[in-house]
Amino acid sequence: xxxxxxxxxxxxxxGITLSAIINFPEGFDENKKYPTIFSTHSIxxxxxxxxxxxxxQALADAGFIVLVPDASFQGxxxxxx
Length: 81
Description:
Blueprint: E1 2-9, E2 17-24, E3 36-38, H1 54-61, E4 65-69
Parallel strand pairs: 3-4
Antiparallel strand pairs: 1-2, 2-4
């Protein structure tokens, strides 16, 4: 399993950038298709407290790509707090 931290422009016209983690299965091949899980966290939480950590790693080990962003104004994502 490998993990990559990325930034995503959320496209709402306010210039807010989201921080996210992607967990990839072992031996990931960008030319293959993989089932993907997109997980969000509850308000007041962050990506590391949802599938960005242990559960995301377990799902990646089972062959899934797991994308876990911090919501706007939360964790490492942008926006006024």
